[in-house]
Amino acid sequence: MSIDASKNDEVKLFTLVIKFFSAKLGCECVFSIYDLCHVGQQIVSFICSSLEENGLRLENVTSFCADNAPVNFGGRQQTGKNNVFNRFQEKTSARLISVGCPAHILHNAAEKGVERLTADVETIVLKICSHFKSQTSRVQNLKQFCEQLEAQYTALPTHTPTRWTTLDNVLEKMIELWEPLKQHFHSLKCPPRILENFFNQTIDLLL
Q1: How far from 195 is each of 35, 76, 98, 184, 198, CA to CA, in Å?
Q2: What sign has the CA pseudo-torsion 31, 35, 40, 45?
Q3: CA separation for the pair 188, 138 (Å, rounded)
Q4: 113-138 per-position pLDDT tens digit
């Protein structure tokens, strides 16, 4: 079973995914979402209720997947007793397998990898997004290059450092608009130096 939390204004939403196998149904998946306060005991009760509602037994659960927030595992070292994982261990005789959030693991690996790149990709993305934000004339100039190069114009999505999963969406759009973007910044008299250097590099050969 996997769990994650998301805050929307004043509402704290917890999502739960339970994957299981049965001889009659084969591989099945249960998805549940609840509005909860960030309290470990509430999370445990919510998961137990979801298991019971779907005819699943707690003692048959093999693993628990979540990020390393203290409420889930007691931190990265998985210590302490007042956390969701330990409460489940106390409720079942089976030894649960603890699984860290795969998205965070992949992000950390990618983050270390991009440190070896010659350009700071996230800084470039933020700079480009800022360059076009609320700038009608710049957007029109980019649209003109799109028409000349027969490229389909689409606005660049928003990206913020705290929402790192949005970076991929912006990069995909940048690749689609690579030539129009390059022509746009080459046409400026005084483009931002970091973007001028970036588009002067031959990295477009790698795309």
Answers
A1: 44, 38, 44, 11, 5
A2: negative
A3: 10
A4: 878 887 888 889 999 999 998 899 99
Chain centre distance of CA 84: 23
Please state the pTM of the whole predicted model: 0.56
Neighbours of 86 (CB within 10 A): 20
Closest CA to 16 of 58, 50, 39, 40: 50
Q: With beta carbons less than 8 A apart as the criterion, state whether 51 and 58 touch.
A: yes
At residue 100, φ and ψ (nearest 5 deg) are -70, 165
Residues 15, 45, 20, CA angle at the centre, nearest 5°? 60
Q: Which CATH number fits domain 2-106: 3.30.70, 3.30.465, 2.60.40, 3.30.420?
A: 3.30.420
Q: Label residue 29 left, alpha or beta by phi (over 0 means left) and psi (-120 to 50 means alpha).
A: beta
Instruction: Locate the domains of the chain by residue range.
Output: 2-106, 117-206
Q: How far apart are CA 114 and CA 125, in angstroms?
A: 14
Number of Cβ atoms within 10 Å of the Cβ of 61: 19
Predicted confidence (pLDDT) per residue in 182-206, tens digit: 999 999 999 899 998 888 875 544 4
